[in-house]
Amino acid sequence: NAVYLCLGTTSNEYARDPIAAEQRLKEEIFGQSFTRNFKVSCATCLLQDEPNGFVCISSSSRQTVDFVRNVARNRSEEKRQQDLLHADHAHYLCTMPTRLLWTLEDKAKTRQQKRQATNELLKYMDTQGIPTTDSNVSIELEHHLSSILHITKRDSNVDSAYWLILVYDDTTKDKNPCWTVNIPGGKRFLGEQSFQGAIRETEEEMSLLISEQWLLEDEPRRSSPKDERINAYYMVGPPSNMLMESVANDPFWRKEEVNDSGD
Q1: How many CA atoms lie within 13 A of 50 on its CB side?
Q2: From CA 179, how far away is CA 156, in angstroms rounded?
Q3: Considering Cα of 27, then 33, then 36, then 40, what sign does the dihedral take?
């Protein structure tokens, strides 16, 4: 465990409230000059008790995830028009079924099975307005998406869940077209709680504003390997009052059927 002493902070005080001690340390280092434009991440030794936060937006209803996607897309477009998008913001947002993502992750699957899953995911992306015209395109799963897939592989809805996924076009002139996919989240700032960091990262990377009302579980998920204990994964979904209000006001919910041709 990390132990540090700054002005007026004892080791007992740190053990009792590490976040308060971190906030005091931040104030000591930066004083009143600290701004949110200056990024201060935590050293690994500080993450055992208060890990980095990541968010998995999940539902067994594709329509629910599509609704959240549209909310995020609309807000990202508003920010784009004002030139306010964060540098880490996803190029696209896409609803994807976990069964296809798991096929890409599962090392036991054959190359043919992975190619078929890739083609099916490309259909999902195409029906959601993401350009997928090149037949040589590949889809690569980033580390934290892979982690949450392994964490949830024994969940009862593992074959029926849909997740809202960040999609980045990482094509370069030196390789075939490549999409990388991930979930929102990242390193927490000094003095920031895990879920506070996850909220901030979700807004930065997909323009979606979430809160504790979105939490689907009382505790975050954690990976079993020791080197993964520095990350916490929060399963979230839109709160019921948000859905009920949208059902009453949004024609999206009055569609008689959802276009699920990618499934």
Answers
A1: 26
A2: 29
A3: negative
